[in-house]
Amino acid sequence: MLTPLPDLLPQAQSWLEEDPDATARSQLALLMEHAEPGNDAHRELADCFASSLQFGTAGLRAEMGPGPNRMNRVTVGRAAAGLAAYINSIEPPTHRSGHLVIVGYDGRHNSDVFARDTCEILTGAGIEVAVLPHMMPTPVLAFTVQHLGASAGVMVTASHNPAADNGYKVYLGPGVGVLDGTDYNGSQIISPQDTQISACIEKVGVLRDVPRRDDWLMLDHGVVGDYLHRALTALGDGPRKVRVVHTAMHGVGTEVFSQLCALGGFTDIAHVPQQALPDPDFPTVAFPNPEEPGALDLAFALARDVTADVIIANDPDADRCAVAIVDDGQWRRLTGDEVGMLLAWWLVTRRALPSHTHIHWPADATLATSIVSSPWLADFAATQGLNFRETLTGFKWLAQIPAMVFGYEEALGYAVDPAAVHDKDGITPALVVMELAAHVLAHGSSLSQTLKEITAEHGRWFTTQVSARMADMSAVPALMRRLVASPPADVAGIAITTRDDLSAGVDGLLPTDGVRWYLADGSRIIIRPSGTEPKVKCYIASRTSDAMSALAAVVPQLLTN
What percent of the chain has pLDDT over 90? Predict the structure, then answer.
């Protein structure tokens, strides 16, 4: 039911008077002018004021526009003021000169504006602020927070969301959260810090009364050089002959990726020209996510033209990495789990090579992944005498694992040097994939053949994800309750032998909304709500492709009936 206009218009007028952005004010004024009961302008206005964006473990992320349910200078300003209050409550300051916050931003519409507002408000609160030299990949921000011993970091980005969106990620630095049992070291926030920051945001008064200053510090390219030189330590001195096609997906990854390639000795790089430079409209793709159908079409075409050995694709803020290879004569993108297999195998295998003697792992070295990723990593770790840990979905959880030497999640997120970047990093793992490709090429093989050999020796799990969209967000909790209370006896004729209600907390994991079923043939199904859209996601893992396909065909019917 739409909020009546007599209730909406006073809220909109109050917002209009507070919003400092002329474009957003004009947009809101136009909606107010054209709103009639039940028309499109009324529906859009109602949605803008339907609720307030909630600051959670992923910070803020939403479509840009006016009102508390959109990303704009008011919501960002209030978030910055609340974050400032939280940081000033941390005792003692974690940086030698007091509290320091690193701010970064990507190439999306308004990212620089939101970053400037954040700097002004944090500086106005008496906090030292240092800004990355210009638009930068998210992993550079995560690295710099730890590298400079900052109390926190803010990255303005919506990652791989549509062009209309923007977002606000918050990282906490070394020493922050220790009293609550978490030393962040530059990772994204989890509980209880997320709720503490959210409570501070709720207490922010009128935005125009929040003090601002503009005397923050602009960092030079030395911090980028520090990130690059640390990334190089993840490589050995083996072969470098490999022909690579790279796409930044209209994001900010090209410059840093190119610099790292040059420093690392990888010289045969072809960038997809239409997608190499930042463009907030993402004109060549329907959706700026390397996982989406069609997103790599230009990369495939260029790879065929130059006879490439491997394709590397970053998402717009370069914290994710997709890999494509030639398999049976055709280019195909590897799944996130397949890239995870290649990286895990190579990181373990290369320790015996003379070219990698400088890389040392702790005695309790641990491989880790999220619960929705392939079970393969657990099997592999056991055969290698390595520890294995499984976490809830998201790198904010993976980053908390002690002695982790490699971690990944199936959504193209990888950490090959977690001690330096406590988050997923789309650039350093890309170079490690290229190192592996050069190594196998030098030995007369290929990534495709290597993947076949790995699965022949260490087994294989076939994985896929299917989704079911609901009519609205309210339908999702009802579906999850039904799956817990009345689960089916079988799926595709395969009996369910174990049913886990993840909201109760299982296997030492914190409670999370979802169910996990183990089937009689060893297959595993995990179903969880999206969190940002009215849909549920289902992750299927099976020992055979036939079983995976059969389950994938039936599961959507279970979710919608």
Answer: 86
